[in-house]
Specification:
By secondary structure, the protein is α/β, with parallel strands linked by helices. The chain has 20 helices and 19 strands. It is rod-shaped, with a radius of gyration of 48 Å. The relative contact order is 0.07.
Length: 648
Amino acid sequence: MSLYKQLLIGICLFTFVIFCGNFVVTLESSREQYRNQLSAHAQDAATALGLSLTTHIDDPTMTELMVNSIFDSGYFYRIRVIDIKTNKPIIERSDVPQNTRVPQWFVRLVHLSPGEGDAIVMRGWTQAARVEVVSHPMFALARLWNSIVASFLWLTGCSLLFLLAATLLLRRMLRPLNYIVDQAMAITRREFLNVSALPKTPELRRVVEATNMMVTQLKVLFSDQARRTESLRQEAYHDSLTGLSNRRAFDMQLQSRLSDEENPAGHILLLRVQDLMGLNQRLGGAKSDQLLVAVADILTGLQRNYFHHEGFVARVRGGEFAIIAPLMLGQDLDNLSNTLTTQLKALSETGMSDLSPVAHFALVPFNVGDSPQAVLAQADQALARAETEMRFFASPDTAPAPEREEDHHSWYTRLDAVLTNGAFELFSQPVYACNNAHVVLHHKILARIKTREGELVPAGRFMPWIHRLDLSRRMDIVMLQQTLQELAKSPRPLALSISGASVADDQSLNALLQPLKSAPQLAAWLTLELDENELPDVERVNVLVSRLKALGCRLGIQHFGGRFHLIGNLPQWGLAWIKVDGSYIRNIDSEDDKKLFIEAIYWATRQINLPLIAERVETAGELAILENIGLHGAMGRYFADASTLGRN
């Protein structure tokens, strides 16, 4: 029961008790007073009538006239004049005065006795008659009733005014408690709020100050944990000189790209600075370090301009760098090669190296299922040929035939038909609770397209063309519509990936959310997921989260781990979950650095009660480590491969 209801009931009970007490006291004090008044009234009437009849007792007409005049002048129940000798009434008048304002239950409750009086009528020295007068208590009951009603109205009015004043006062005084509730609810949403307006009441002020201190401390603990985790990641997976990822991170990313059929094919660019050891001896370590940093800046620029931040840049070792890039066509390869050659020549011309070429690089393609060792060996062979021939760039001997222009048209025709007809084949992969492989947390939606021959094409083959042909927004809308259709048939928790392009601006976001607005009853079953690398700026994510929350939908992050600095923003976003990239999960049971990193992420997210889910779990050993750490859920081939959505 709420405090306001308790207050209302309390005031009503208090008013009732006061009224009852006042009624009892008033009744007891008034009853005796009114009884005496009634007795005096009856006795006075009897005495006056007895004296008046002394000279007219033998005149029946005058006697009746006097009795009638006395009876009609007051509240009398009965007046009798009795002959003393015969003890028979000479004249008698009786009646019950009517007063409809006094209810009968009140008359019965008060039970006020009528007053009685008598007097003797003399005839000379002889007693001739006796006058008996009984007064009716109606006038006393009327006065008592009016007094009780006035007291009740006064107490009720005062109680209502007090209740209103107390309600307003309590609402004002207890407003900080609502803020405290908001603080607690915000913490469950991974947000940290402080109450700025402190109450004036000392007791409540101390409570609010304590909660503010608690929230601040939680925020500091989370921030410290996030900084420690980011520092751990920097030490484990980053090169301290160039700021790029190191060989360990590169191997993880390459293995992840080659082992997951959902990933598209791509290219590896391998670059090696010529004679780095000799440069150290001739120009000094500081000059060599400047050259390495300059090369790292060039490769980062290539990633930004050519791959739109999708490429993965790393310093493999010494003067050797690598980029894991999306698949590029012939013209793009030529532009990339020419740009990189020009920038490397500029380094030589500015005197950062006394050798020309400053570095050699090679580009080799890879496909899902290739061996990392084979891909790197092929790139190393091409690089060795470039070094032997003293030229900047070399392609592998087994370079694929360049894409033909009609491939653009054929892929666009195929994908446009799928998007127009909403003909994606929906598959799903279950996400299980880590500590209970029988509990399914949700299903992750995967897309396939079917060829005319009935062959299912995985996302890794057609997604590069979706991005290249700028069809990401259309695909997200179509996939969302198809997913909602499946939810209408069988409601259950589902997760659907969307692209960063669909939430980059208000127009795209409105188009994406339109299917959810058309089916609000299904939105609560769906969680949209954004890739870590496609997250927009912080303010844009805030807008996205608030828009989704208004529709009953939620947002999650997938493939998390490469941009750990984002974890500082997680409390204000109120995410559904975070899915850790499979590259940090693979062989976690045998690689301690991955285990330490996942533990750090877990403890950082645990501070804000944010569920952590592992992607691409493939062995029982990996699952055992994740269970021991305490992760919320896991998905991967160890549990089940992707299957048609309708089968789950």
